[in-house]
């Protein structure tokens, strides 16, 4: 089309734009713009001062740009060292699969993960490195919306087993442990007597001697007097494990209970200045003593556990969690409070693993969950 005709059309468009009030035939305008693909970039723009300026069309965003920006944003959320470490983990997994003729399928099957852990153990890799590698797999699964097999019970237990197999007995001196709490502790003691390892949970090999003190219906108000009484019969322990306050939830306002627990723990610590306090997480229930609202009580349980664990850890203590004990009939008896045989087994396993880790490695929380961050490959 001749240049003069092009210029004439642009002049018409500019005039319509400037006048503003003039009715515009949209169909005609679209046809004019379609004839000149770049004309839209030359349409004058207006400002509040009435000055005519040039309005540039934004750059067209392609599919590649979106994919690239997605990866960039995820990578920016991670430290460079983390990205490098997790990429090494995925490379190691690929090398392992090649070595044993395993397919490179995704999501990563559970048997590939467990075999990969065993493979790294055979190579005598450090437990911390193995945790990092499993973290990489976990994040890769989550970021790609795959089912995450790396967080299953058997995987966590293999990681714990690696860590514990590397532990060394610190010395031959006896390590005294008191476990004090409600009827849950009394029942756990009875259950431990029939298990391999007995009431010392198999920890006699590292010099541990456990004194179980469980009292039905025990609440936080009973703790101070109980500790004073126990001090009359035994020397102060190295570790004081407290499983308490489940019977207090819902009885008073949450803030009051939180402060009452903290104040009581401070008093107990003053009586036993050389003992390390271990907060044993309040377990879930389906039947609470002071409330019928299951959701409200579970929320209170989480908040109290979080607040007291933070307080205890800040003051040099320790924290034991029980992520595998859930509020259902598999783990709880019909009363919705006390543990079944399976529940007691898991409870005792966590106590055993926690005490061994605290004594031999100096860690403060058990189980020590691994992180979940990585980049898209």
TrEMBL record:
GO terms for molecular function: DNA binding. This is Core-binding (CB) domain-containing protein. InterPro entries: Integrase_recombinase_N, SGNH_hydro_sf. It comes from Mytilus edulis. The keyword DNA-binding applies. Keywords: DNA-binding. It comes from the Eukaryota. The keyword DNA-binding applies. The lineage of its organism: Eukaryota, Metazoa, Spiralia, Lophotrochozoa, Mollusca.
């Amino acid at each position: 089309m001749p240049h003069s005709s092009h210029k004439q059309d642009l002049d018409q468009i500019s005039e319509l734009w400037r006048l503003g009030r003039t009715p515009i035939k949209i169909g005609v305008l679209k046809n004019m713009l379609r004839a000149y693909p770049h004309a839209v970039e030359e349409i004058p723009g207006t400002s509040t001062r009435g000055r005519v300026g040039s309005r540039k069309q934004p750059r067209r965003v392609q599919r590649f740009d979106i994919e690239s920006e997605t990866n960039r944003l995820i990578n920016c959320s991670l430290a460079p060292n983390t990205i490098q470490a997790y990429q090494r983990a995925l490379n190691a997994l690929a090398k392992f699969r090649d070595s044993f003729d395993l397919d490179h399928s995704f999501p990563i099957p559970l048997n590939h993960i467990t075999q990969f852990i065993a493979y790294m153990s055979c190579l005598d890799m450090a437990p911390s490195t193995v945790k990092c590698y499993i973290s990489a797999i976990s994040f890769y699964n989550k970021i790609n919306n795959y089912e995450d097999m790396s967080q299953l019970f058997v995987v966590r237990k293999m990681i714990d087993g690696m860590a514990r197999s590397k532990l060394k007995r610190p010395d031959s001196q006896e390590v005294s442990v008191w476990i004090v709490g409600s009827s849950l502790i009394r029942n756990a003691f009875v259950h431990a007597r029939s298990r391999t390892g007995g009431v010392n949970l198999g920890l006699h090999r590292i010099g541990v001697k456990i004194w179980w003190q469980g009292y039905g219906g025990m609440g936080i108000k009973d703790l101070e007097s109980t500790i004073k009484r126990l001090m009359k019969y035994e020397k102060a322990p190295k570790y004081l494990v407290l499983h308490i306050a489940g019977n207090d939830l819902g009885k008073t306002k949450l803030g009051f209970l939180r402060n009452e627990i903290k104040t009581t723990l401070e008093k107990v610590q003053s009586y036993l200045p050389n003992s390390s306090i271990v907060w044993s997480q309040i377990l879930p229930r389906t039947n609470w003593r002071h409330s019928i609202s299951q959701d409200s009580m579970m929320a209170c349980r989480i908040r109290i556990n979080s607040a007291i664990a933070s307080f205890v850890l800040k003051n040099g203590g320790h924290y034991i969690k029980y992520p595998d004990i859930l509020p259902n009939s598999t783990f709880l008896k019909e009363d919705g409070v006390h543990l079944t045989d399976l529940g007691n087994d898991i409870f005792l396993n966590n106590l055993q693993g926690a005490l061994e880790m605290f004594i031999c490695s100096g860690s403060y929380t058990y189980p020590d969950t691994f992180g979940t961050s990585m980049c898209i490959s």
